[in-house]
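Q: Here's a chain of 193 amino acids. Please give me its 3D structure as tokens.
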Amino acid sequence: KIHECVCSAFDRRDFSLDDTKQHLKSDYILLAKEGDSILGFSSLIFDSPQKVFNDSSLPITQGAYFAAAVIAKEAHGKGIYSKLNTNRISVALSKKDPLVFTRTQNPLVETTITNGLRARVNSGEISGYSLARHYIPNCYEQMLSKDPPPHSSDDEIQREHDKLNIRAGDAYILIYSLDYGSKEEVLYTNNKL
């Protein structure tokens, strides 16, 4: 059923069952269900960006990798991804992970994580965060979904994602450094690698 959800989410039937199984290898999995149907899932891996992506230019500091996150096409627009992300952020913060990171070619992924962290700043759970985008040309070798992702409501995020050639598989690794210090020290900033 999870594999069906993946194929639905990307509106493609050419994702292999092995690809789905690979994305389920994680430390933490969240499922969104309605009856017997799986509407979506997300997962977390606790490791460093350097190890997850096998790239020595990335930080060696352990953090929470927001790995797979998939919402079935029929469940898009219902806030499920946002809820799954809220839960992933909660898990990362409960572990006091200094980093939250992911890889994506979808501006809504960045928007949702950013909005989730802004909410945690506003609630006082963290005092701030900074974001570094690491450009990965031809990362996926193709656009992951059948259609381009929807546009972000955040103009700055959308401008950054407009620089990607998603048809060629370009993506960003997004690395959020979290600040657990006093609220007066930092609000949030947006930096590039």
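Q: Can you summarize the key feature?
A: The beta strands are 28-34, 37-47, 63-71, 99-104, 128-136, 171-179.
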